[in-house]
Specification:
By secondary structure, this protein is mostly helical. It has one domain. The protein has three helices and no strands. It is elongated, with a radius of gyration of 21 Å. The N terminus is likely disordered.
Length: about 90
Amino acid sequence: MSVEPSSTPGLQEDQDRDDLAFGAEHAAGAAGIRHQAARIIEAVLADTTPEHDRARELLRRQLDAHPGHPERALVEHLAALKAAVGE
């Protein structure tokens, strides 16, 4: 026996649409942030300045630790750099 979402007690059709719209907006926003992070990472890794070798290596480690999630890798990388400067 199947239950239609609109016949489920306590759920309103408008609420279902709002939840779907929010979910779609959230997914689009996450994809946008992921894309931006990937572009930043590409730029950092393309830099060949010897003084930035250590930073690039740390970023590569974060990418390995967070495959498919460049935004998470970038956040962790920036946090690690901040901690290293604070030492």
